Amino acid sequence: MADKIKVALVGIGKIAIDQHVPSIATSDDWELAGTVSRSGTVDGVPAYTDIETMLAERPEIGVVSLCLPPVPRFAYAAACLRAGRHVMLEKPPGATLAEVYALDAMAQNAGLTLFATWHSRMAKGVQAAKAALAGKTIESGHIDWKENVRQWHPKQDWVFDPGGMGVLDPGINALSILTEVLPTPVHLKSAVLHTPANRQTPIRAEMTFSDGITASFDWLKEGIQTWEQRFVATDGTTVHLFEGGNRCSVDGIAQTMSELGEYPALYARMSHLVRTGTSDVDLSPMVHVSDIMTLGRRETAPAFEW
Ligand code: NAP
Question: Gfo/Idh/MocA-like oxidoreductase N-terminal domain: which residues (predicted)?
């Protein structure tokens, strides 16, 4: 077996602790060799509070996985690439498209791997849905992505600040699946964004895309959380992705799923990219978010407090 790849995790918060740390710990490919966070640490792992110090003191760490929110992420990613490190970006990969294009160019010029991850694309039913829709023409589709912001982003005010994307932060997960499974790309036709009177980003959004596809994102859903997509092709094939894309049925029949979970699959992919000297930067989900922000009609929603 090849040597484990040493990785540093940056931004030790909710997703780093919930998903990245356990996925690295259970992988034969990876070793968590350092963390960078102003306050977060991981037991037994050398901790730094400053990215430049970690990069200078730990030359053997070849990969940095950035788990902080999108707005501060660019400066960290650029520092890592300048220091000759491969970089893995949490979703959404940046605060703007242009900054991710800039990172992509930096990585290419330096011969480094950049992986703009989309964890929902790795959900266990996504490839079955993609296979079922391959070569078909879509007649209609609908996405319901409805979850409780207080459960998934407790007290994280950044999600309601400019660049935090509001409900489009989880919504981009739905769009990452949509852009993966559809046989041909769709484009946004209209959107309505409901933004709390005291906040900067939407808490609810409705979208209409070409090919008869509609979507409804809601961040105030209590009780059972709903992450579903349904598609009907012109030949009558129906595809239902549910549980965030982790289950799939085609014409009512349950499909065989991928084996790896979302984050273990992301780290397996990053390991492949690093070992083969390649990158994976698909910004199509973020293009849709940008279009939704550009074309969306604004409506004021009741003020939101945690
Ligand atoms: P979070 O817990 O609020 O933030 C992660 C860490 O980033 C924080 O603990 C903080 O660590 C650091 N950080 C925050 N603001 C910073 C700043 N301005 N400058 C430097 N560091 C800063 O957020 P999260 O929920 O883990 O989300 C992080 C990313 O993962 C987001 O892009 C999100 O979309 C994605 N994600 C989240 C979830 C989820 O369920 N929450 C699921 C999948 C993906 P220090 O204060 O210690 O530096």
Answer: 5-115
Residue nearest to atom 31 of ligand 1 (CA): 69
Taking CA atoms only, the protein residue closest to ligand 1 atom 2 is 13
Question: Which residue's CA lies nearest to atom 22 of ligand 1?
Answer: 68
Q: Where are the domains of the chain?
A: 5-116, 123-259+289-301
By C-alpha distance, which of 226, 223, 222 is closest to 240?
226
> DSSP string spanning 92-160?
S--SSHHHHHHHHHHHHHHT--EEE--GGGGSTTHHHHHHHHTT--EEEEEEEEE-BHHHHSTT-GGGG
Q: What is the spatial distance between Cα 6 and Cα 36, in angstroms, rounded to a whole number?
A: 14
Closest atom of ligand 1 to CA, residue 169? 34
CB of 127 closer than 8 Å to CB of 204 = no
Q: What is the rounded CA–CA span in Å between residue 33 and residue 55? A: 12
As given in the structure block, the two tokens for residue 84 are: 């000759």
39 CA to middle of ligand 1, Å? 12
Helices (H) and strands (E) in the chain, counts: 10, 15
Q: Which CATH class is domain 123-259+289-301?
A: alpha beta
pLDDT tens-digit readout, 63-119: 999 999 999 999 999 999 999 999 999 999 999 999 999 999 999 999 999 999 999
Give the CATH superfamily of 5-116: NAD(P)-binding Rossmann-like Domain (3.40.50.720)
Counting Cβ atoms within 10 Å, is residue 282 exposed (0-12), middle (13-18) or buried (19+)? middle
pLDDT computed for residue 63 by the predictor:
98
Instruction: Write the burial class of residue 164 (CB in 10 Å: 0-12 exposed, 13-18 middle, 19+ buried).
Output: buried
14 included as an active-site residue? no
- pLDDT tens sequence across 77-89: 999 999 999 999 9
Q: Which tokens is 207 given? A: 């979208």
